[in-house]
Amino acid sequence: MNKVKVIIPLLLLAALPPTGFSEEKSENKNITIIQGQSTADGKSQVTERLLEECVGSLPDPASLDPIVSSSSEYLKEINGDPAKNDFVKIYTATLEINYIVKQKALIVVTTNSVQGQEPVMKVLEKTLTQSKKFSSNSADGDLYAGRSRRQYYFSTPEGATKDVRNRASAWIKQQSAVLCK
């Protein structure tokens, strides 16, 4: 009977909750795990978005003065004549147009941070100088060499000058649609 008297109190102790007899810490077990990753490295990213762009100024087509260059080349079958092979002076012309472009851009600076800092946005207005180069196209020349595979050339400086001015004038007329107001 002594053994039964010892076992019964032990069974009663085992049935009691452990909080009354020990100093264990309790934890909140209501944890939600969300899978994700943080890029909080403190780095900044700068992006630029073009909002508006227009051409500020264009030159007058009548004021264009091309640079004319000449060279001497040996041509065979000049203007289709099989007996005419000779050195001929040929001309090319180049023209460079400088113009102003005005741009309005939105600059956005974002920073990777733990707090989720708002991006910094700023509108920036820029004035840029651009240039466009034109060359005379010898396919429109008045002189040719060869029979089956013809190569055309300008035989006068005026012809090369006229061709490059026409090309530049056509481009200026196209750009006049995007002039700043």
Write up this protein:
By secondary structure, the protein is of the alpha+beta class. It has one domain (41-178). The protein has helices at residues 2-15, 157-175, and strands at 44-57, 67-75, 86-111, 120-135, 143-145, 151-153. The strands form 2 sheets. Strands 1, 2, 3 and 4 form a 4-stranded antiparallel β-sheet that branches. The chain has a two-stranded antiparallel sheet with strand order 5-6.
Order of helices and strands: HEEEEEEH
Report the helical percentage.
Answer: 10-25%
What is the percentage of strand-forming residues? 35-45%
Tally the beta strands: 6
The shape is elongated
Radius of gyration: 42 Å
Structural class: alpha+beta
List keywords for this structure.
alpha+beta; 4-stranded antiparallel beta sheet; two-stranded antiparallel sheet
In short:
This protein is α+β, with helices and mostly antiparallel strands.
What's the arrangement of secondary structure elements?
Elements: H1 2-15, E1 44-57, E2 67-75, E3 86-111, E4 120-135, E5 143-145, E6 151-153, H2 157-175
Antiparallel strand pairs: 1-3, 2-3, 3-4, 5-6
